[in-house]
Write a structure and sequence with these properties.
Number of strands: 4
Radius of gyration: 31 Å
Distance between the termini: 6 Å
Shape: rod-shaped
Oligomer: single chain
Strand content: under 5%
Length: 453
């Protein structure tokens, strides 16, 4: 199961368990105080669940609305001898902040729940954004020049009768760095996202105490109701003093006040240990993946292309069996201006990847706000891309050639940005798509295996 799924499932489970505990315990604890007001409690959990899933809900207002509705209904039930009108209830609610009928629970829960839910949903959303970025980036088509370079790297030794000779490691690195030049530019914002997720993870398992806050909402509600019951006479007297005496009715009253919390406390303790393990596991993955995009070429060369060791002087260097002399290029698009293996137009960045860089920035900013308890809005956006092709041969115009321009004097050449239409590339390079497709699959596979496990 992925980190995103684990986080999503854990927080949803916390809320579900709290709701179930309320439904199980409240009928016997409060009798008709609960049974006649079930919808108020159901609506609260529904709003909390919608908020967590990203709906544009003001959480503080939702909590305030819950306490207002609960107070109105409970006040009427606890004073059945009076005829309480809507106008009278409006007056009572205006004085509620002063009288504090539920004690400090509403204010305390609002502060803690707001921070906890903001952190929880931002944390889960951060993983989803990271996963979506990997998915979209892995679907970006390779350029005509890149597919030719991959063909030369992987197939030409077989055409030359050197099927047992591995590609030189530095040669492979230059090819892959040229092909994934745009992807490497994700590195900076990707690291910021990983670091921000780690910080929010610490908040979730630390100061914001997400496990206790979300998992014990029902207990805080019970505490608030009990406070109202215990101070019923003094609160009623204050309301009457501020709003006047309501008309007398003829209805009777009855109430129960039983407390039963041992089982709930045990469940909260158990889930806290689960949260600690969840956060530790996620932080380990996040820390390991900070440099994912710039270490990807090395991973592909060693795990997929099976390149030789760096010291091997009897490897396939793109021309013959021997050592590979050109230096290894740096990471990112700008550093490919002198790449001896792949012609890269550094003046035309891939727009899909630039869009994903912006998505990373936006999500990191949201996590920064969540870290200090500020609410953030989420908007779902997705557009899928795909690519396909077939054929596998070694054309003469690919093997045996190295880019003619000297690394020190070579200038960038202009090529059209590859189309994201899924039709591949034309000409000789279309026959090299199995290699290109292998590379694309490797990006997604390594990410899926290590990133969100």
């Amino acid at each position: 199961m992925s980190c995103a799924s684990k986080a999503e499932g854990y927080f949803q489970d916390l809320l579900n368990k709290s709701e179930k505990a309320l439904y199980d315990a409240f009928p016997s604890m409060y009798g008709e105080l609960y049974t006649q007001n079930m919808k108020v409690f159901k609506d609260l959990y529904s709003e909390l669940r919608r908020y967590y899933r990203g709906s544009n809900i003001n959480l503080e207002e939702a909590l305030n609305e819950f306490w207002t509705r609960l107070l109105e209904r409970l006040f009427k039930l606890m004073n059945p001898q009076y005829h309480i009108t809507d106008e009278y209830l409006d007056c009572m609610v205006k004085h509620a902040e002063q009288h504090k009928p539920f004690g400090e629970v509403p204010r305390d829960l609002k502060v803690k729940a707001t921070r906890a839910f903001i952190a929880a949903r931002s944390y889960a959303q951060g993983f989803l954004v990271g996963s979506d970025v990997v998915k979209k980036v892995s679907q970006v088509s390779l350029s005509h020049e890149c597919t030719r370079a991959i063909m030369k790297l992987m197939y030409c030794p077989h055409c030359r009768g050197m099927s047992s000779v591995k590609p030189c490691n530095n040669y492979c690195l230059n090819v892959v760095k040229g092909c994934l030049a745009n992807q490497a530019d994700l590195n900076t914002e990707w690291k910021y996202l990983m670091d921000s997720l780690v910080v929010v993870a610490d908040r979730i398992d630390g100061p914001y105490n997400v496990d206790t806050v979300i998992g014990t909402i029902h207990m805080r509600i019970a505490e608030a109701i009990s406070n109202l019951q215990e101070n019923k006479d003094s609160i009623t007297a204050k309301v009457f003093q501020g709003c006047g005496n309501p008309k007398v009715s003829t209805k009777g009253s009855s109430s129960e006040d039983k407390k039963r919390r041992g089982k709930v406390a045990l469940e909260a303790k158990s889930s806290a240990q689960a949260l600690e393990m969840l956060v530790l596991d996620a932080k380990g993955n996040l820390t390991a993946l900070r440099t994912y995009w710039i270490t990807l070429p090395g991973s592909l060369c060693s795990k997929k292309v099976m390149a030789s060791s760096a010291a091997d002087d009897k490897c396939w260097n793109g021309m013959t069996k021997g050592s590979y002399l050109p230096e290894v290029m740096g990471d990112g698009l700008a550093n490919q201006i002198n790449n001896p293996e792949v012609e890269v137009d550094i003046t035309k960045p891939d727009m899909t990847i630039r869009q994903q860089i912006m998505q990373l920035k936006i999500m990191t900013n949201r996590l920064g706000n969540a870290n200090i308890g500020n609410d953030v809005d989420f908007q779902d956006a997705s557009d899928d891309m795909s690519g396909s092709g077939s054929g596998d041969s070694c054309p003469d115009d690919v093997c045996g050639k190295r880019l003619s321009k000297s690394p020190s004097t070579r200038q960038p050449e202009t090529h059209a940005i590859p189309k994201q239409s899924g039709h591949g590339v034309s000409g000789a390079s279309s026959r090299s798509l199995p290699s290109a497709f292998l590379l694309l699959l490797s990006v997604a596979f390594i990410a899926a295996q290590h990133l969100w496990r």
